Amino acid sequence: MVSVLDSIIHGVREDLEQRRIAVGLEEIRARAAASAPALDAHAALSAGRADPQGVRIIAEVKRSSPSKGELAEIPDPGSLARAYQSGGASVISVLTEGRRFNGSLADLDAVRAAVEIPVLRKDFMVDEYQFYEARAHGADLVLLIVAALDDAQLQSFLTLTHELGMEALVEAHTEEEIARAAAVGAKIVGVNVRNLKTLEVDVAHYSTMARHLPDDVVRVAESGVTGPAVVADYAAEGADAVLVGEALVRDGEPAEALRRFRTASLVQEH
Ligand SMILES: O=P(O)(O)OC[C@@H](O)[C@@H](O)c1c[nH]c2ccccc12
């Protein structure tokens, strides 16, 4: 059976071939080498558990999703990102996938130009071209989805990411995927409570998976935040950072919403 993830990746590869025709590998490598050095995303996220200001937030610029359709128009991604930054975000995540998420590299450029904090290129990374492209467009961090890659790809893409001075958020959904992330030496591991093969969300899944995370990685809880209580639960389960999309893009006052999420972990100790 073709999963949602498989069908997204099929489209990602088609779109990628078009971009590779327009800007060849050699050119994109040169652009990556010429861009300002990546910011330290690992430092921005590590030891979030002990942060007296509350759990770290990775705030996402996300217009649409395969599960919900259009979430928000976001005519000016740079100004949304600035609001996130002023609300205390540690990292901005930008969806650059076009077909299902209605994102683009232009969104990444706009966000990069608007903020001083690390930026995550959130896409389905399946070809080395995309890593040079991410760096050329100012990304500091990329997403590696374990379910979309075999071990050899995971290892070589993680190495390439580090060679380019970037960090990777290595996303797992199952215990086996966490073990695969750990085996390649991932330093930042996300547990996505949304299963990308079926799109089902189960926020309790984070606590089930958290005990399998290695001690020495930065722990990120991804998806499913509907309000401060969910952020507080993730933090209580030991998350250093929480990745939030929908709840922030749908909120009319994203900076305020972000502040509420950050401090939720301080007031709702378990
Ligand atoms: O909108 P939410 O439920 O807050 O989720 C954000 C983020 O975790 C989600 O967008 C996401 C997590 N991993 C992904 C991989 C690809 C695309 C999107 C995602």
UniProtKB/TrEMBL annotation:
Its EC number is 4.1.1.48. Residues 5-260 form the Indole-3-glycerol phosphate synthase domain. PROSITE patterns: IGPS (PS00614). Pathway: Amino-acid biosynthesis; L-tryptophan biosynthesis; L-tryptophan from chorismate: step 4/5. Keywords: Amino-acid biosynthesis, Aromatic amino acid biosynthesis, Decarboxylase, Lyase, Tryptophan biosynthesis. The keyword Endoplasmic reticulum does not apply. It is an enzyme of class 4 (lyase). It comes from the Bacteria. It catalyses: 1-(2-carboxyphenylamino)-1-deoxy-D-ribulose 5-phosphate + H(+) = (1S,2R)-1-C-(indol-3-yl)glycerol 3-phosphate + CO2 + H2O. Belongs to the TrpC family. This is Indole-3-glycerol phosphate synthase.
